[in-house]
Amino acid sequence: MEKELRLMKGNEAIAEAAIRSGADAYFGYPITPQSEVIEYLMAEKPHERTGMVVLQAESEVAAINMVYGAAGCGRMAMTSSSSPGVSLKQEGISYIAGAELPCLIVNVVRAGPGLGTIQPAQSDYFQSTKGGGHGDYRLIVLAPASVQEMYDFVELGFELAFKYRNPVMIQSDGIIGQMMEKVVIGPQKQRRTPEEIIKQCPWATVGKPTTRERNIITSLDLVAAKQEEFNLKLIKKYKEVKENEVRYELINTEDADYILVAYGSSARLSMKAMDLLRAKGIKVGILRLITLYPYPTKIIGELTKKVKGFLAVEMSAGQMVEDLQLAVQFKKPVAHFGRLGGVIPAPEEIVEALEQKIIGG
Amino acid sequence: MAEITIQDIIKKENLVYTKSKVMTDATLSYCPGCGHGTAHRLIAEVIEEMDIQSQTVGVCPVGCSVLMYNFLDLDMQQAAHGRAPAVATAIKRLMPEKFVFTYQGDGDLAAIGTAETIHACNRGENIVIIFVNNGIYGMTGGQMAPTTLKGMPSSTCPYGRDIEMMGNPLKMTELVAQLAGTYYVTRQSVHSPRNVRRAKKAIRLAFENQKLKRGVSFVEIVSNCNSGWKLPPVKANEWMEENMFPFYPLGDIKVDGEIVSK
């Protein structure tokens, strides 16, 4: 089975990519707008296709702890949920980061706070990029803007998770999760054998042979100085992530006077806004974030020298814009535009926001 | 006559009892008289006798036994508070040929982890759950547990557990015995040589059952907490016999998937 073109929902693409990337396990709990992930997996019988374990857990809390258990055995494990469910997972995510385990978490974001609504939003940016759970830790956060990227980022996410022994999050939203697009799907990758897993993950708890010391998966250290040493190790790791893993896309920025900074669905909407603005003779480009953490601070620094201002377009009350402001360091005007509560902004509103808040402001 | 040194006494032929090879040389962090050390030793002995050290993965809880991985020479995972059955579920599902057990206290298993316990038991995961019930939160300093007896004092019910205000003590073991996914459910103690032998037999059976793939084997160990109960060890054991055992009676509750006691 070589490359193949299919029409798929974003959520289905996540599920198919999980099977094809050779994932060992998925644990989840239904929540709108991402229940298609587990539905698709169950219908596909991955236990027959690849031997992958798929289990509907009793809660988001149990699901993320199952991910912890599987990841502790060196397995490629993932879960998916939407905002209220991802809040429930935060304890487990903190433990996974603290135990330095690789895993993939998908958040198909809906509007909050609380039960909020099932409509799409990008209001979990702080939770995804600033920690979310307790303690000093970071996730590597990927933001797909198409169904194709939903598919592609599963394998990329696992790759980064194992490279850094750190949880990776795909932060999507209800639009990308629910919409259908053409997807190129790759060939089936073989799941790693138990021997390959031991070789790749010598730290995994798979039963202690006489030939090595026991492996322990824990995030506990009761000695403050040792815990600090561990915290410093994590910081070093995140620094490496910042140096190596920043991903973004520049669209029409060469001649741009103004930059729309956006990710995911907002980036798609910004494309139309850019066309409308260019038709009016306003030179607008887009910086599309692919990694939300690490944030593309360096390229923003370079753009700051060339452009007249930035507009952060995000479906939140203004979260990502704070990182943009830090990167621009008040050298050029920065503003935020977003619709809230599951309302999807119209491109015309983005045009108006740039004109009023940056060009006219 | 030559002086006899300690080395002369510690000879293989003189030894009637040794530490299990599955236990490390680390000094136990438990209070003198605590049952955890004995319970750990029984698990280690069973694993050694079954020769499954290289095939066993344990999951330790949050609570006094959070550092269990320091004492058992096994691959182990430390789970978030109450989540050990979920963690063990995944380990066993991904490595069905391995032996997987959790070791949990009453707060961990019967309060914060109630959902994980019930659902792992109900799904019939092929794991062993060792449940140490001393009716109190030991590590955090003697607060009320879900299993604290009526009238029993703790630092959060200093005048005794008031049922009207604080609710009833929870018999989790009887509860999980009702679930179709449990295969063996028993309640034991480790406060006397006779009970230690019985508890070991129960733990052995629980691990043997795992080969049958018929569901959860659940071993409760009613134990003491002399620090939390504020009693010297011998008195604590007497208090346990007089107060804990009438409410938490020892013996098998479910064997081979059949309820054997009411």
Explain what the structure shows.
The complex is a heterodimer of chains A (361) and B (262). Chain A has two domains: 192 residues, 3-Layer(aba) Sandwich (Rossmann fold), CATH 3.40.50; 112 residues, Rossmann fold (3-Layer(aba) Sandwich). Chain A is α/β, with parallel strands linked by helices and 361 residues long. Chain A contains 14 helices and 15 strands. In chain A, the strands form three sheets. In chain A, strands 3-2-4-5-7-6-13 form a seven-stranded mixed β-sheet, sandwiched between helices. Chain B has one domain: Rossmann fold (3-Layer(aba) Sandwich), CATH 3.40.50.970. Chain B is 37% helix and 18% strand. Chain B has an eight-stranded mixed β-sheet with strand order 2-1-3-4-8-7-9-10, with helices on both faces. Chain B has a two-stranded antiparallel sheet with strand order 5-6. In chain B, helix 3 links the parallel strand 1 and strand 2. The mean pLDDT of chain B is 96. The chains are: A alpha/beta (361), B alpha/beta (262). Chains A and B meet through helix 4, helix 5 and strand 9 of A and strand 1, strand 2, helix 4 and helix 6 of B. Strand 9 of chain A pairs parallel with strand 2 of chain B, so a sheet runs across the interface.
